[in-house]
Request: fold
Amino acid sequence: MAHLAWSQASRPFVRLVYFGNMLLILKSGLRAALCDTAIWNIWQRRRDKRQIAAWIKAGKPIPPPSSVKRRILSNYGVARSLHCFVETGTLHGDTPSVLKDQFKAIYSIELSEELARKAVRRFRAYPNIHIVQGDSGERLAEIMNDISSPALIWLDGHYSAGITARSGINCPIVQELASIFSHSIKDHVILIDDARHFNGTNDYPTIEELRDIFARERPNYDFSVSSDLIRAVPGSPVADPF
Ligand SMILES: C[S@@+](CC[C@H](N)C(=O)[O-])C[C@H]1O[C@@H](n2cnc3c(N)ncnc32)[C@H](O)[C@@H]1O
Reply:
């Protein structure tokens, strides 16, 4: 009897969970169907504009939303007339998606086989976007072999919990930089995400250690940190668009 009463009382809850799940399935189906279409791009631009305005209004707290970081990346590409974008850590591919019309060639490395497979599927209609599966500490050097002009390099391949993958270390930044420094082109623009994590713990070097590496390898670079981004740029710094 008590069991019957409980099962009747729980029915609205079960229905709620059922409809909640249906909504989630519908939402991810819609996302997959609309992803990277013209409608999607318009919606994404409007959402990014709103997010950036809200971030500025809130006093530019750290960390900024991804839309702010992508606007900064785009600005570096324009300011230095760069046509090639290289990313470590693809995740869902949202950064290549935003930059796909700006750069002639985009390379993105993702350690997780599943995320890389999904990104390959997402960008199958874009011959200028190359998704490479593997550890950026190793694969970046191979990609650099294909590059024959200064590139905007976005180092974001750190383990970030959740569905993200982890290689032997949480942050392969030292190996990534070694691949960049050994390349024949000596004036790539390098931006590193998540400056707040670079404190000498969990395989992250400190900002000062990175500054020393750049002072040694690229003494002509301007090295700075702002809005949670470490920026290493040949010559003079580039101002943010906001
Ligand atoms: C913070 S997310 C990247 C976000 C993405 N760059 C963006 O702008 O939206 C970090 C990604 O790096 C990947 N990753 C972690 N270690 C890696 C490694 N050694 N090589 C390549 N990718 C790695 C993770 O699986 C995760 O997808």
About this structure: The first helix runs from residue 2 to 34. The mean pLDDT is 93. The chain is about 45% helix and 15% strand. The two ends are 66 Å apart (CA to CA).
